[in-house]
Design goal:
The protein has an eight-stranded parallel sheet. A six-stranded mixed sheet has the order 2-1-5-20-21-22, with helices on one face. Strand 9 (136-140) and strand 10 form a beta hairpin. It is built from 19 helices and 22 strands. It starts with a strand and ends in a 9-residue tail after the last helix. The chain is globular and about 80 Å long. It is an alpha/beta fold.
């Protein structure tokens, strides 16, 4: 490739005009004249005509199975970003009419604050008022809680006598102790265990199409967080068919957080290696240390605003966390810890410090997922302990959902997602879209990193402090590679590294990110020297978009 504006993310040579690729690796990076010397009669030469190119993107936290699996399992999808209670009710009744019988009605999603705005209490009584005789369970948009009717609770064995799991709780009437139909965090696994599991073909299609869409938006590596044996089998099926267009690190669920994991211990003991390939590994484990903001289960160092003692929910004892992190580190398994409250991340960092004391430094780079609120004193510890600070774009900018779902944070909302603070202390920060909580399209969050404003201008104002365009690019390229332990082989355009490169329709470093970056079109995605996305037919003569649409004519997960 020659005549380009190639931003390499290599400090020694940040810009190049041309690159040469052979056997899946960059064999030269430099000027047109330097690369021209390597051209032979059989060399495929592509003229970039001044186009901007950069390393491929790394999405370090997403869930295609949760977003598309329900759809391809023919579950309920309310289909509205922030539905009102009436819209949720209408969707449930329409689904029941279209799918008669007494089978489960399961799907997504409702939003707690939409019920509060309507003066209603979500739960069994509300569902029973219009659909009492058929089991119904609806996830909230944050995937932090589930709303179930009486029939669903009955089939799941959830009653007044039920004991809360360690990693969640059943919301109850304060006087009678009767479950009110809201199950928080790991408690809704009780509902999942009573339902038929999603079919393997639905999970396979969800991962395949999610990965293809990511590749079409320039992603070359990703982490699929929360997997079980069935989900690993779906990923392995795609991988063995040669249809996996990016590198995947899959994180096994430690607890029954979102769905039951029947062979957790066998997978962690070594069975995970059965799925290992050049593009797939399962050497990570996902934990929910705390909950989410909307049900006020994020675990804080001090009590929640307007609360005397309630700090949120810590799903495991500190001793459990300490021993687990050290044990996983010894097994060379990465811990990805869901921490939305500053108390949860504080305990996680303490656990990693104890892990380094027991096992020595040089162990796995463990990952603090979401990092929604961080204590100021802990910012420097990310660099000191070599912990990855992963941030999700769902709350980086003002929107109706952000201000509603996180209103409980009060004035602390401006502190959320303190990417600037981690980078200033020398830490490694990465981005994870966390789809379906926010868009799978990384370019919305990518732009918002540099502005902390709403990319579509739907609401004015800023939330938090932005980073520079160059810092944002490093976060989604070389920092992502570092978080996967492969920064020596990918993440920048350098001689000897994997030939991962994307070509865009605009030069990111010559335009104002605001209102522009999220509109970027990826005209070429190359990973390991293979063409993964080529809508213009530049390199192989057949527009990739045609093949993509034939494979998935109704796949349009681009809503923010």
């Amino acid at each position: 490739m020659r005549n380009g504006r190639i931003y390499t993310v290599d400090f020694d040579t940040p810009w190049a005009e041309a690159v040469a690729i052979k056997n899946g690796k960059f064999i030269a990076v430099g000027s047109n004249a330097e690369i021209e010397k390597l051209t032979a009669d059989y060399t495929h030469v592509h003229d970039l005509n001044g186009a901007f190119a950069m390393p491929g993107l790394h999405d370090m936290h997403t869930h295609p199975d949760l977003a598309l699996g329900p759809k391809y399992s023919e579950y309920l999808d309310v289909g509205i970003d922030t539905p009102t209670p009436d819209e949720v009710r209408e969707a449930i009744l329409a689904y029941a009419s279209a799918n008669p019988g007494d089978d489960w009605i399961f799907g997504k999603h409702f939003v707690h604050f939409a019920f509060r705005k309507a003066g209603l209490e979500p739960g069994r009584d509300w569902l029973d008022s219009f659909i009492p005789d058929r089991p119904v369970a609806i996830m909230d948009r944050m995937w932090g809680s589930c709303m179930a009717n009486s029939k669903a609770l009955e089939l799941a064995g959830v009653s007044t006598d039920s004991i809360d799991p360690n990693n969640g709780y059943i919301v109850r009437d304060p006087l009678s102790g009767k479950p009110n139909g809201i199950l928080v965090d790991g408690a809704y696994a009780l509902i999942m265990a009573a339902m038929p599991p999603p079919p393997l073909k639905a999970l396979t299609r969800a991962y395949r199409e999610g990965a293809r869409f990511q590749s079409s938006r320039g992603v070359v590596a990703t982490k699929y967080v929360h997997v079980c044996e069935q989900r690993l089998e779906a990923l392995r099926t795609i991988d063995r068919s040669g249809d996996l267009p990016l590198r995947v690190e899959a994180a096994i669920s430690w607890q029954d957080d979102i769905f039951p994991v029947k062979r957790r211990w066998e997978l962690l003991a070594g069975e995970r290696h059965f799925y290992r390939s050049r593009r797939l590994n399962a050497n990570a484990v996902k934990f929910h240390f705390d909950g989410t903001a909307e049900p006020r289960t994020s675990y804080l160092i001090s009590p929640w605003p307007n609360e005397a003692t309630w700090q949120g929910s810590l799903n495991m004892t500190p001793e459990h966390i300490y021993d687990m992190v050290a044990e996983m580190d010894r097994k060379r398994i990465r811990v990805i810890a869901h921490c939305t409250g500053d108390g949860a991340s504080d305990i996680f960092l303490d656990a990693v410090a104890e892990c380094r004391r027991r096992n020595g430094h040089g162990g796995m780079r463990h990952q603090c997922a979401h990092s929604t609120l961080l204590d100021e004193a802990n910012l420097k510890r990310f660099a000191e302990l070599d912990v990855i600070a992963e941030f999700s774009p769902v709350g980086w900018f003002p929107s109706e959902f952000t201000l509603g779902a996180r209103s409980s944070f009060g004035e602390r909302l401006q502190e959320a997602y303190n990417v600037r603070g981690v980078l200033d202390e020398g830490g490694v920060a990465v981005m994870g879209t966390d789809w379906p909580v926010s868009s799978i399209d990384p370019w919305f969050g990518f732009e918002a990193l540099t502005t902390r404003e709403n990319p579509r201008g739907e609401m004015e104002g800023k939330l938090g402090k932005p980073v520079t365009p160059e810092e944002a690019i490093r976060m989604v390229t070389i920092n992502g590679a570092y978080a996967m332990g492969c920064e020596d082989t990918t993440g920048s355009i350098s001689v000897g590294k994997s030939a991962d490169i994307i070509v865009l329709d605009r030069n990111l470093l010559e335009i104002d990110p605001k209102g522009n970056w999220h509109k970027s079109k990826v005209n070429l995605t190359v990973m390991d020297g293979e063409v993964m996305h080529d809508p213009l037919g530049w390199l192989n003569g057949t527009p990739f978009e045609t093949r993509f649409q034939e494979a998935a004519p109704d796949f349009t997960p681009v809503e923010i």
